[in-house]
Here is the input.
Amino acid sequence: MEMRSHISLKAFHTFGIEKYARYFTEIHSIDELRGLLSDHAYRGVPKIFIGQGSNILFTRDVDGVVAKIAIHGIEKRDETDDYVWIRAGAGVIWDDLARYCVERGYYGIENLSLIPGTVGAAPIQNIGAYGVEVADSVADLDAVSTDDYQVRRFFPDECRFGYRHSIFKDDLKGKYVIVNVTLKLDKRPTFQTQYHALRRWIDGNTARYPSLNMKTIRQAVTEIRQDKLPDPARFGNAGSFFKNPQISTEKSRQLLVDYPQIPLYTASENTSGNTVKVAAGWLIEQCGWKGKRVGDAGVYEKQALVLINHGRANGADIMALAEQIRASVKEKFAIRLEFEVDIQ
Here is the structure.
């Protein structure tokens, strides 16, 4: 493990903002991770663990260690006639794992194609898209304790998965570092195509893709995402900056009176039926923010959920814009938006 000093983080997060880390290193194995955690030279020094840096905004220099998890490898852990268990290192690029599974006919995460980030970050955020969440496929995951450096295996019920949420974002935040994730995937055709944009793409491309299979779904998701989301190489961004808020069904009925076109969705993790999700992008667009620019911080013209760096914005600029948007939505709809991005 090589430890470097005073390293720019610009190349290590997709917002591309020039902030510096006092120390920076890459972790390639569980032993290296344990070595860092137990090293007396860095005992008590704040540590931030990152993957691809695709869900983080640095608003200040880091007076501590930034450690990039680069534990790689994909392997088949087990298999039956109906299912396969695939284990991937936390540093594997998520879309590389999605491609790997699609190419081998393993169903379950094709709808999550092209989501940026790494395998280790996926369960922390409980990434999701087009009617599917990674929680639907997680069999278990291994994580190293930052306290005693031991490896603990977590099963789905222990992860407390929710909408863009897991136990690793609250009670266990900073207490464990995920080193690998095992997914249980189906070997039988199972498709999730109920999401409107996905269904529309499939119906509109039958000439190009006459049969419905997981490769078709991966292609559909890829093209939809490429069309509506900015390339970080052109505009620094972290994807969706805000979560879709959950509101009471009573509140939703009140909003429907004034805004009949408001997009509402079932909150899948709430079986009681007393809450629904509202499309945050629609709320932001109704407040007039879509495509707007304040200095070099802006709202993407094709997707109001995405805040972008036009080149010279810093973290404070992005945050100032985010707070203005949040205030607008609160004033107009009496709904408070929550950030999806990790603010540092």
The chain has nine helices and 20 strands.
